[in-house]
Specification:
198 residues; five-stranded parallel β-sheet; single chain; alpha/beta; globular; Rossmann fold
């Protein structure tokens, strides 16, 4: 008997919104409920492309902005075969950042349109659910280690937040917004189960 396809669940938000913590909690809760689940995150800094991105984000190297955007996209594409295989095996993937972050962050820079930023990711596996952790950049700036990486400034994060708000107007994507301040794993589980029953 063929197994049911796993779900692709993405968590998005500004830096320090709590995505990594919530991804871990969600994977644990799904596994506890008997559903095979694994976490992924982008950029995946373990690959050759990911290492280039990591050095850039950590301010150890400089790259032209178009190049950086395409590297982020290439980092997602190089993991598509793995993602598809796991989903087909019935494993639910909980992903910390995806193409929406790529579009939001690059289009927050001068001279980049959302339309151009989204094009390299056309054809990626479509998420079943995108949870957006709503947290003001001012609140995020109060969290530990804010400012360590290149894009962690309040001005830039405000611009990113505005781009996410534009992305969330796309009704073809199943967006759900959660309060990043008081969020716990239970809202994710409720939303996930409701969607999987439809």
């Amino acid at each position: 008997m063929a197994c049911q396809r796993g779900a692709l669940i993405v968590l998005e938000g500004v830096d320090r919104a709590g995505k990594t913590t919530q991804c871990k909690m969600l994977v644990q809760a799904l596994q506890k409920s008997g559903r095979p689940a694994e976490a992924m995150r982008f950029p995946d800094r373990t690959t050759t492309i990911g290492q280039l991105i990591s050095a850039y984000l950590e301010k150890k190297s400089e790259l032209e902005d178009h190049t950086v955007h395409l590297l982020f996209s290439a980092n997602r594409w190089e993991l598509v075969p793995t993602m598809k295989k796991k989903l087909e095996q019935g494993i639910t993937l909980v992903v910390d950042r995806y193409a929406f972050s790529g579009a939001a962050f690059t289009s927050a820079k001068p001279g980049f349109s959302l339309e151009w930023c989204m094009k390299p990711d056309v054809g990626l596996p479509k998420p079943d659910l995108v949870m957006f952790l709503q947290l003001s950049p001012a609140e995020a700036a109060l969290r530990g280690q804010f400012g360590v990486e290149r894009y962690e400034t309040r001005v830039f994060q405000n611009a990113v937040q505005q781009k996410f708000e534009l992305l969330m107007k796309d009704s073809s994507v199943n967006w759900q917004v959660q309060d990043g301040l008081g969020c716990r794993v239970s809202p994710f589980i409720v939303s996930f189960k409701a969607r999987r029953k439809n």
